Amino acid sequence: MKRPGPDFRLMGIVNVTPDSFSDGGRYLDPQRAIEHALALDRDGAAILDIGGESTRPGAEPVSMQEELRRVLPVLEALASQTSGVQLSIDTAKAQVARAALDLGFHVSFSGILTFKKAEDLRAVAAFVPLDRCLIETDSPYLAPVPLRGKKCEPANVVHTARRVAELRGIPVEEVAMATLANTERRFGKRFARGE
Length: 195
Description:
Elements: E1 10-15, H1 30-42, E2 45-51, H2 64-81, E3 86-90, H3 94-102, E4 106-109, H4 119-127, E5 133-135, H5 157-168, H6 172-187
Parallel strand pairs: 1-2, 2-3, 3-4, 4-5
């Protein structure tokens, strides 16, 4: 794979699940997931995003113990075997988020945070330090409330940011500036600001 240029960054997705959108379960085995993540790192990924529970429509929820069993070996290996690549986790479970935070990971939130039944995820969003919080689109799927059922677009992250702000009792601008700063640190690049 050709290394990206200075204005282009790759994000590697490592789904340690039997039924992900992108890989159909090829990396459910933690050792295969680690090998895949390290290959993504060698190929130039700026970010590695790890997940242990599928968010595809109709996916069965997994217990906290099962999610930890899936992702903890991967998180631990990547924390010690990568350098320079930024690490994040997608999870709705507080104990999984805490384990990732303890290893230096960021926690990323998508439109799922706004869903009616996402109480556990909102609890996680309320305690993750803002300097370790990211917001993502999951585009083109999983549009946030009030746009459920529509194609998810990057501009929709404002709904997720508003929900994080509500949970913390702070202005949405504070969440926006913190998550923008986190993203800039992760990508090593300054992004344009809307004036």
